[in-house]
Amino acid sequence: MAPGPPKVMERVVGFFIPPACREEVLGDLCERYRSPAQYLLEALRTVPLVVVSRIRRTSEPRLLLAEAATLYISFLAAAWWLAGTPFFADTAWMRLAIPSAAALAALVLRDAWSDPGRRTPAVDSALAVTLAFLSQAALSVLDPSWLLPRWVLLGGAGMSLLLLSALRTGFHPGRQHLKEAGPAGGGSPLTPDEILRRSQELRKNARQRDLALLTCVLFISMLGWQPILGQPIADWLAGAVTLAAAGYVTWRVYRNNSARANAVTLDAYRAQLERQRDEHRTIWKWFVGPLLVSMLTFALRAALAQWQRQGQWALIIPFVALSLCWSFTMGKHSERAARRLQQEIDALDRAR
Questions:
Q1: If we measure between CA atoms, which residue out of 199, 223, 198, 193 comes closest to residue 290?
Q2: Which among 18, 122, 139, 199 is placed 20 to 30 Å from 35, CA to CA?
Q3: How far apart are CA 164 and CA 70, in angstroms?
């Protein structure tokens, strides 16, 4: 029987395996060990498949789309504010996608390598921003013409840090506490203390969601202030549409929050669940729809500002596509949350 693999080689291979499945995979590789060359070839064939499998289990496609849109739009907004309309020509739209893609890759790998119960949105976001900076450092060696201006990079990174933290705080699957089960005890009535605890937890989740929504509104407002101060009527109208949408969403979030209160009776808790369910079901009307109109208005104005450039309309396609993906993701996420709330309402009704 051949001895086990060299410890140094085993440590190197183990470094590239996510911790959740590292021991099992290294054990399988050790059992099949015949020689260092065979072990290395086996690891090169096995480890990528393990990593991909782990990423598939830890990454939610809907959240991934939302994060991709958040990153790209953050850098785009920074470029709009700090570099102005002339920046959006030639390869600018693609240059903005490079740090966004690098940051998204960092989030995917972070989810695959970390313990779901110990993830911290701020740390996740900081790691993503760090990889965005590293992507620019690599470009400075490979092709400096694709580098972003320094202040655009810093502004986009700062906005990404803020928006990603809010998004992961309010919408990450590991932080959702909506219950699919009904009353405790398999159908026994909820006690007043249990009702109050669940009501407080529901309000806490709603506040976290509102934080994420209002952070998105802040970003949209930044897109609107600069054009509304411009002289051309097209700039003024684009800014007015954006700020009107941001103001409407802010008012709806405030109104929704003011209607929430802790429940101490079963009927009050059921009514609280119904309000939360209805907010999720109608999110297209009061949040996703208005912000999508704002983002498409921004893209249209950016293209019209340099309409004489050949291919200018094609350059906004990545931004438009990500805006649509972001909207679809937010809508689907809210539909799923509404279904979970309805399941709890049904469970409460069955237990009566």
A1: 223
A2: 18
A3: 7
In a domain, 1, yes or no: no
Cβ atoms within 10 Å of 160's Cβ, excluding its own: 26
Show the DSSP H helices in 143-232 as ranges: 150-171, 184-187, 192-228
Residue 58 placed within a domain: no
Burial label, 199 (beta-carbon count in 10 A; 0-12, 13-18, 19+): buried
The number of distinct structural domains making up the chain is 2
Both tokens of 138, joined, read 């690599």
How far apart are alpha carbons 37 and 240 in whole angstroms?
A: 65
Determine the structural domain holding residue 19 and report its residue range: 7-51
Q: Report the distance separating Cα 184 and Cα 162, nearest Å.
A: 38
Distance of CA 310 to the CA centre of its chain: 33
Residues 107 and 243 in one domain: yes
Angstrom distance (rounded) from CA 117 to CA 106: 18
**From first to last of its 352 residues, what are the pLDDT tens digits of the chain?**
456 778 888 888 888 888 888 888 888 888 888 888 888 888 888 888 888 888 888 877 767 777 887 788 788 777 877 776 667 666 777 788 888 888 888 888 888 887 766 667 778 888 888 888 888 888 888 888 888 888 888 888 887 887 777 677 665 544 444 343 444 444 556 677 777 788 778 777 777 677 767 766 776 676 666 555 555 666 677 778 888 888 888 888 888 776 666 666 778 888 888 888 888 888 888 888 888 888 788 777 766 666 556 556 666 777 787 778 778 877 887 888 888 888 888 888 877 6
36 and 79 part of one domain: no
**Same domain, residue pair 147 and 272:** yes
Alpha-carbon distance values, 82 to 79, 98, 201, 279, 315 (Å): 5, 18, 41, 36, 19
* pTM greater than 0.85 (yes/no): no
> CA of 108: how far to CAs of 18, 42, 57, in Å?
12, 25, 11
Let me know if residue 307 belongs to a domain: yes
